[in-house]
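To: structure desk
From: M.T.
Subject: fold request, one chain
Message: Could you run this one when you get a chance? Sequence is below, nothing fancy, just the single chain.
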Amino acid sequence: MSRLYGCKGVLGEPAKSWHLFRFIKSKYTMSSLVELMAELSTTCYSIGSCHWVEVTHINTPDDFYVRPTAYKSHLRKLEVYEGPITESKLKPGGVVVFKSQTKKRYVRGQIRNIRDDGNHKICDMFALDYGFSEAVPVEWLNSPKREGMPALAVRCQLELCQPKGKEFDKKAVEAMIYFVGDEAAKMIVRGKTADKLTVQLLNSCPDDISTMLAYSEVSSFGFGPNTANRMTCTNKPKFFYKYKKVQVGDSFPVRVQSGDSLQNFYVSDVKEFREYVAEFSQISSYLRLETEMRPEDVKVGKPVAVHTGYKYERAVIKEVTVPEEKAIVQLVDCGKVIEINMLSSRLKALEREYYFLQPALAIYCTADEKQAWDNGLQRFLYPGYEFLVTVLKVGKDHETPNVVSLARIEG
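Reply: Done. Structure tokens follow.
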């Protein structure tokens, strides 16, 4: 296939954008990279906005990934690792630095699945800053030195680009790779769904990439049923918290999370609490980047993140006490039920699967108060106090408590 253009600079030099990127690079250090992500994160890709990007991976014209060119200088810093992965991070959803055969170097990735392959464990990885997937042995995984940074690659589809048949064939993919080339592209956001942007891509080709593919007769030009555009009304995927499953007779060490009596208190599994602490900084950084909710969108039962003064915590709306002003929420990782001001609490809607990978930390319990052996019930229920529980009767999530017996941790 002959290239359908021979001129460069059709778009002209993106002088203003590059001046902006130089300013950003000089202004932001690694310690303030989170703030950079907040300004240029995927949640800020409003319809009609323009961005200079690199196309990092192409599956098909309706499934590819881009990364803002401003992020390139930060990649190496994010790919520094400390050593072999810890056991707490070796689970689906964990973010690591892995040795990539695709890029021939170490890159950041998220574990999607862990499986056994004979004598080895294999991890199915998703490269957060590029968009490709790859299977690698667990020995190739390392703990990142810097945690808490969101994915830099954004999933996209071309506007007005539809397959000739049921799906795009190999020729269409090869043509897109050819027209995209290795140069930066100007991306105009034309539509947006929960997990994908619909975009127009322009580079030094005579026309935008969708039109070039149509000229080459490897695609059809027009809207399709999966196109996200200004008129699209898309239902976002709904996620719900998972809760620790226990059975009668289960016995395990716990720490107190909250409570004012043994008739109504919350604990967490000690091991799960330590894993939560290890990942909290990353979760909190992601939450800071999410868009704040509008008060009119606050609904009973909706998973949210609440700013409690110095950090964000996962929660669920229990009751709206004053419409668009106040609500009662339950913090699912400590169990507390509090009333909040919708604006000052900086509510964030939780609409990404990542926030639901780890079950709610708090386990709802009740026990006979005569079992408290300490010098006072107030001290016994102090957050952080550890003891053993044995499940006598199974409750339901945070609705009805698990009936438990208590015992000291010996040794």
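Reply (cont.): The longest helix spans residues 270-289. Let me know if you need anything else for the meeting.
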